[in-house]
Amino acid sequence: MTLIKHELKQGWMTLIVWTMVISFMLALCVLVYPEMETQMGDVSSMFAEMGGFSAAFGMDRLNFGEFMGFFGVECGNILGLGGAFFAALLGISVLAKEEKEQTAEFLLTHPVSRREIVGQKLAAVLIQIFLMNVIVITVTSASIWGIGESPDMRPLILLFLAYFILQVEVACVCFGMSAFLSQGGVGIGLGMAALLYFLNIIANLTDGAKFLKYVTPFSYTESADIIADRCLEVKYLAVGMVFTVIGVGMGFWRYCKKDIFS
């Protein structure tokens, strides 16, 4: 628990900044909806006729004239990309920063095993992701209540759940990569999150790239599918869980064996 508290204390500013930015952007997105609602019917028709572009973002299957259609695309992209970047930032640095900051000697002199160190660092990452989501959901819910909307709760909850699972997967994959790094690798983590996002767009654009949906966690956060089917895509979710377990396993295996320089 001591190391968890230490990690949370070190990362509190990053958590606050990312949470405030994502919450503000989501709240702003929700609050502008009443001003745009009357125009959304025409916008929805326009997007439906844009072929590949609208298919890439699922806009051909959503009604922008309804709140959930608007929320799924506009707010979903904010939470999807913002949350993925935050999760990647946490995961990619957590096992590498002691070598980068030359504080490994202090850490490893404590009476805890490397396995305990890895476990507590992973727990700290997951706690920060959970806290960010709790605040974001609270702010977004208050914003929805503030504009007088009463959306269908099931797809809304599933959307938030899907993005939370996505963040956990991205964080755990980056966590595993972090054990192989000694210089932080923030660019690697953020780049990987962006790559996964664009892989999903490519998969939506062409049938020949549909297999990419098994690679990217953004496949099970498709708002059009969640709103229409009222459930998560289990086959993509299951593959994502496999990647999550592999990432965690790689982190434990590598960190417990590597030579750590202080």
Automatic annotation (TrEMBL):
Q: Any keyword Secreted?
A: no
For this UniProt record, the keywords arranged alphabetically read as follows: Membrane, Transmembrane, Transmembrane helix
Q: Which domain of life is it from?
A: Bacteria
Kindly list the GO CC terms recorded for this protein: plasma membrane
Where do transmembrane segments lie in this chain? Answer: 12-33, 67-92, 122-145, 157-181, 188-206, 236-256
Pfam families per the record? ABC2_membrane_2
In the record, what terms sit under GO molecular function?
ABC-type transporter activity
For the keyword Transmembrane, the answer is yes
Q: What is the name listed in the Swiss-Prot or TrEMBL entry for this protein?
A: ABC transporter permease subunit
